Amino acid sequence: MTQDDTLQQTLQSALATLGAVSGLTRLSGGASQETWRLTLTTAERQSQTMILRRTPGGRPRPVSETAVTLDVEAQVLKACHQAGIPCPRVVWTAGPDSEAGSAYLMDYVPGETIPRKILRDPEFAEARKVLAHQCGVVLARIHAMPLSTLPDLNRMEAAGQLRQYRDIYDSYDYPHPVFELAFKWLEARLPESTDPCLVHGDFRNGNLMVGPEGLRAVLDWELVHMGNPAEDLGWICVNSWRFGQSQNTVGGFGSLESLLKGYAEAGGRAISPEEVRFWIAFGSLKWGIMCMTMYKAFETGADASVERAAIGRRASETEVDLLNIIYGTALT
Amino acid sequence: MMDQPSLAEIIRAVRTFLETKAIGELSGHTAFHARVAANALAIAEREVTQGPQADQNETARLKALLHLEGNLETLNRALCASIRAGAIALDDPQLKEHLTASTIAKVAIDQPAYSGLQIARSALTGASHP
Fold it and tell me: What's the DSSP call for residue B6?
């Protein structure tokens, strides 16, 4: 019996009250947590595609220092869905003691997440016109989530995150003069402390479910935290997430003006392009160090794939973007 | 002295095999990883041809900037320490020129089609590139 067969049986018994499980398929995305697609058929013979998130081995711990546990992720999703934010509806959760391990089941939202398709395919031409504004609106609503409806989340401000990423970078002991420059540049421009709000943490092209009409759902909530709302606005503008369409600041599909306009219209606080620029640089540095981290999995033998090896060579793209921000005027 | 083919030619032969023959016969995850593999070989090919000159230029600039001798890694570690200690100003023109030239050379090997590379070439060096 394969591992998938075992999981199929475990899930079938765990989900028995909901219906019959079939077509269990491991999805490629989401390397840090297991994500599966399955079909759930109810007693009334209604079939629905669902998405299962599960901690590998059923362990409840988060997969990295910055990620939350699946349990917290599900609680945040439930609260946001309840508040009308476009995100998948959670229908079932299981704690670490359940036979399925730490897991939750949510509705599958149909659409496209592959950035290059969203940026190029004719069927998304209309979506591209409205996406940046829609992202602004949705971000304002995420940032306005009442804290009383949310689980306890770590507070991560710019200064603390910079220290954290500096420690990670230092631990690799491999010289990157441009990263040193970026740390200094960012440390000299730290934003003033703001009232903390819910920050998605990975709001970018690639984690947005998009239909021909526009944004359908925000996915991948494992990096949620309390922090500065401008962090989310900067992250979606990082050049790596523009997938070649640098002239379109927001995700390669829209303008910063549209994003900020949508954000303000939905009640978000005034955020200046200069503030976004700080967080774009911060995001580029963070992504560069994340590339080093992913390469480390290859170096240590934890993941011997050519993909893990090759991603180390993407750190340099963030260096050229950092120089364009620090020494140039580009990227906003 | 090694015989022909050169290292660059060996890498090119394997990459071309992957791109024109193997990938078309594969599907799903294996096809994806084969494309990643071909891309990794393209990086290796460019590094074999462009790397030695880039390293030589970078070493020369670092020696002039830091007034130090040493190999490329030692010099880069010294530059990192100098930036971190605040011994060199972030807007030092020689630092800017060095980091720009080194990073452009690096990305030209790693990802020559990367959008940020074209921006850096035109905005940071003043050179015009297509």
Answer: P
Q: Judge: A328–B115 Cβ closer than 8 Å, yes or no.
A: no
Q: Inform me whether the C-beta atom of residue A307 falls under 8 Å from chain B C-beta atoms.
A: yes
- Domain coordinates of chain B in residue numbers? 7-123
Give per-residue pLDDT as tens, A160-203: 999 999 999 999 999 999 999 999 999 999 998 888 999 999 99
| The predicted structure's pLDDT at residue A3 | 65
Of B99, B111, B114, which has the smallest distance from its Cβ to A323's Cβ? Answer: B99
Q: How many CB atoms lie within 10 A of CB A81?
A: 17
The helix (run of H) or strand (run of E) holding residue A125 is helix A125-143
Q: Do A323 and B107 touch (CB under 8 A)?
A: no
The CA distance from A59 to B25, in Å, is 38
Of A28, A180, A306, the CB nearest to B37: A306
The answer to whether A92 faces chain B, any CB pair under 8 Å, is no
Q: Does A90 touch chain B (CB under 8 A)?
A: no
- List the domains of chain A with CATH numbers: 16-107 (3.30.200.20), 115-326 (3.90.1200.10)
Host H or E run for residue B65: helix B28-66
pLDDT band at B128 (very low <50, low <70, confident <90, very high): very low
pLDDT, one tens digit per residue, over B50-90 is 999 999 999 999 999 999 999 999 999 999 999 999 999 99
Phi first, then psi, for residue A139 (nearest 5°) are -65, -40
- Mean pLDDT across chain B: 95
A28 touches chain B (CB under 8 A): yes
